Amino acid sequence: MFRYLVRRFLQMIMVFIATTFIVYSLMYWTGGDPIQALAGEKPVSDLQRAQLVEKYGLDQPFLQRYWNYLSDLLQWPPNFGTTLTGRSINDILSDAWPVTMQLATIAILFTIIFGITAGVIAGIRRGSIFDNSTLVLTLLVIGIPSVVLAPLSQYLFTIQWKIFPTTASGVGGWERWSDPSLWFELLLPGIVLGSLSVATAMRLTRASVSENLRADFVRTARSKGMPGRRVIGIHVLRNSLIPIVTFLGVELGSLMAGAIVTEGVFNVPGVGYQLNRALKTEDTPLVIGIVSVLVIVFLVANLIVDLLYAVLDPRIRYE
Amino acid sequence: MQVRRLAAWAALPLAVTLGLSACGKSGGSDSGSANPNGVVSIGIAEPKHLIPSNTAETSGSQVLAALFAPLVDFDEANKPFEVAAQEISTTDNKTWTIKLKDGWTFHNGEPVTADSYINAWNYAAYGPNAQDNNYFFDKVEGYKDLNPADANTKPTATALTGLKKVDDKTFTVTLNAPFSEFKALLGYTAFYPLPNAAFESATASPLVLAKSYEDAPIGNGPFKIKGSWQHDAQVEVEKYDAFAGTKPTIGGALFKIYQNSDAEYADLQANNLDVVKQIPTASLSTATGDLGDRYQTSPASTLQVLAFPTFDKRFEKPEVRKAISMAIDREEIANKVFQGSQKAAYSFVSPVVAGYRDKTCGAACEFNPTEAKKQYEAAGGPKSLNITYNTDGGHQEWVDATCNQLKANLGVECVGTPEPKFADLLTKVKAKKDVGMFRMGWVMDYPSMENYLGPLYSTGGSSNYYGYSNPTFDNLLKEGSAAATQDEAIKKYQEAEDILAKDMPVLPLRFGQNVFGHSTNVKDVHIDLFNRVDLNKIQIAG
After folding, report:
1. So what family is this one in (chain A) (predicted)?
2. Is the minimum CB–CB distance between B234 and chain A shorter than 8 Å?
3. Of A258, A308, A310, B7, which sees the most CB atoms within 10 A?
């Protein structure tokens, strides 16, 4: 186990350096002129340009710039630098991440509660009315992209029927985790975000449960006279969870990436919101900073998923 | 967005009834009559900076307009009148004496003195500070010494020689050349004063701005900041009790920060937000239904034109340019493509400046396809045209529409040529590459006719990309800048504008409009020349 972890950790470092390098070079070669982007359509004076070039080291060769960036990043605490408007990226990230994590928590809980429960019921009662109606419903939800679902639900649930607040407000940061008003503001965006994965989670669970119900070990358990609840609760569910945990792990990673559309529509000051703004204003340092952290989040999420396999299925061992 | 619009249509009857019932129970605040302590919420984007000399966009200047009081403001006729200044006088338009009103203080209690202005302006004009509004000071004597031509050399001076303190409340500004519109220039964000507390040391040279100043700017205005600037969330301001000027009729303002204008508009629809300064284009078609008479428009300072590279043989003759102008139906594009969010333009200066006259362009801007074709053929206009535009500003639709009109009315080929950025377009024009006609936009820096003429059309003007040069025009501008009174100056500028109508280096197409909306909680919402909500006029609805 320990050796496995060390190996994974070394792999993660390699992947991290490779991905940041790719992102950095992509932003560098396609980024256009960041100084002109900052000034909009107004002309930039030569002096202003010279100042900004010096401040951000834009005249240094590419590898030198990447090396500077990486060495700032690999110290402790990491220094992500400043945006083109002079704000500390560390501050922006530490405000945005907690909000996105809050949103992702709501979304993933929603997915687990609705998706998996409905999937289990549909799997047990295959062919029933419940099974067929949820099938149609999930097809419908899968078919609606979030660019439609988010504004539509905002219009219906916040403007027409004033059930939820229209947009999230205020700053992010860890201290707001204990603030019930922010949880409430994030409820509708969280559900919108989660409903997209509910459908997939349900279909996966259903297939997995109905397959396991026909497995040999279930027949054995039943013939031994084990009560039905115990058969499903212990034997079927535990074995059915493996594909679902994989799915949820990857899903959690992409939820952390910030839902650009949903966060934009509901004005949630999370990672997707910042990423969108950074791309719009061509704020290269901010884009790279956000993506670097995203890479780490994905790597960690994948590691946790792999470790969970061993917990769920004793046959899987890591050496 | 398509579906969103559909949904909005379907819900329109309901929204109207909601709006009506909301009128019935209006007066959402606790008291029955107009509430002088009420707080108004206004949607903005995240400001780039909150430093007067570094704030050139409307979100930041909206916040600064609450925190600072300008030397001059503009009346109904868009002429400047004194606010923080007691008197601004000159005898030769070159040396201006500015006398400040007594009893004015910054929010930290510091008195506003001549030094507050001199320090702020020196900081702004000092090249290495790289302030966005640096160029506003290029007319002041000594600017060149602070901004050497070679960007990598150190400036030889740290203060403008043109700024001289007379006494605590008086200072003089000496310009490089006479400029009659200098008073109007002083109304801009760049000319606010800064307290000593804004600098690490107020006696240092060059001045260094305190790092924390921007988090909670201290100004001399009717409102002071409450707490600090909460990035990506909000900035809140409250009434400054010791304000010596005209007291506002509201207790404070909450500037809510949105990244997405659709989210901002949704909050207005839900009555959570009081003012949206610019309604997103996607919602324009339904906004009248959503808001009723709370949907409003007012003239803005922007001007969209179609420019000609006059050095290009094909567009040399003014007759060709005029014929193209006559073949464009401006009204149709303004109404169909922009849904009334922009207005057809028949003059070269915007209606928001003093001296504006309607239809100065005359017959050459009237839509007249038959005459256009006749003149175009007589003048030997080119068989194929193209319009270069930048793709990042939503210009494709109107460029295509314009091309279609030219195709139909002149019988020529016409295509739009996209460039990724406006800067790319300008680089090509500057290098005299073949771009054909190209789009240009202009946002006013200061409310004066001169600002729509000098930089754009004078020989060697800072934004004269068309190679237009007319000595008579240049002379008229010079005479205007040296004129003894504003009225005389305007007369000269109007004569200069008439020359443009004859030469047509560009075709005026459209003026911008502020398309704004407000909630049922507020009334008397006005958007000023600089696209800011006028906080002195807005009131809580009774």
Report:
1. Belongs to the binding-protein-dependent transport system permease family.
2. yes
3. A258
CB–CB of A148 and B3 under 8 A? yes
User: Inter-chain contact B421–A48, Cβ cutoff 8 Å?
Assistant: no
Please give the radius of gyration of chain B, using alpha carbons only, rounded to the nearest integer.
25
**Taking a C-beta distance cutoff of 8 angstroms, is the pair A209, A123 a contact?**
yes
DSSP string computed for B475-517: HHHHHHHH-SSHHHHHHHHHHHHHHHHHH-SEEEEEEEEEEEE
SS3 B442: strand
Peptide bond into B455 cis (omega under 30): no
Cβ <8 Å between B422 and A41: yes
The residues, any chain, with a CB within 8 Å of residue B251's CB and separated by 6 or more, are: B35, B36, B37, B38, B39, B238, B239
Give the one of B3, B151, B230 whose C-beta lies nearest to A46's C-beta: B151
CA B166 to chain centre: 33
Say if the Cβ atoms of A48 and B130 lie within 8 Å: yes
The per-residue pLDDT for range B40-86, each reduced to its tens digit, is: 999 999 998 999 999 988 899 999 999 999 999 998 888 899 999 99
Whether B478 and B296 have beta carbons less than 8 Å apart is answered as: no
DSSP secondary structure string for all residues of B164-230: EEEETTEEEEEBSS--TTHHHHTTSGGG----GGGBS-TT-SS--B-GGGGGS---SSSEEEEEEEE
Give me chain A's average pLDDT, please.
84
Q: Is B229 on the interface with A (CB under 8 A)?
A: no
What string of DSSP letters covers B320-365? Answer: HHHHHHHT--HHHHHHHTSTTSEEE--SSS-TTSTT--TTTTGGGG
Token pair of B104, please?
A: 């004015």
Q: CA B469, B474, B478: angle at the middle one, nearest 5?
A: 165
Which residues of chain A lie closer than 8 angstroms to B303, CB-CB?
none
- Reading the block at residue B437, the tokens are 């006609």
B132, B232, B262 member nearest A269 (Cβ): B232
pLDDT in tens, B400-438: 999 999 999 999 999 999 988 787 888 888 888 888 999
CATH number of A89-312: 1.10.3720.10
Examine the predicted complex and report whether its ipTM is higher than 0.85: no
**Per-window interface: B 386-445 vs A, CB < 8 A:** 393, 420-423, 426, 441
Q: How far apart are CA A255 and CA B154, in angstroms?
A: 49
* HSE-up (13 A, CA, CB side) for residue B280: 21
Angle at B184 between CA B182 and CA B187, to 5 degrees: 115
| Residues A12, A17: Cα–Cα separation, whole Å | 9
Measured CA to CA in angstroms, residue B216 lies from A2, B5, B109, B411 at distances of: 51, 40, 15, 60
The token duo for B21 is 């019932």
SS3 of residue B140 by DSSP: strand
User: Is B463–A159 a contact, with Cβ atoms under 8 angstroms apart?
Assistant: no
Q: How far apart are CA B27 and CA B9, in angstroms?
A: 28
C-alpha of A32 from chain center: 28
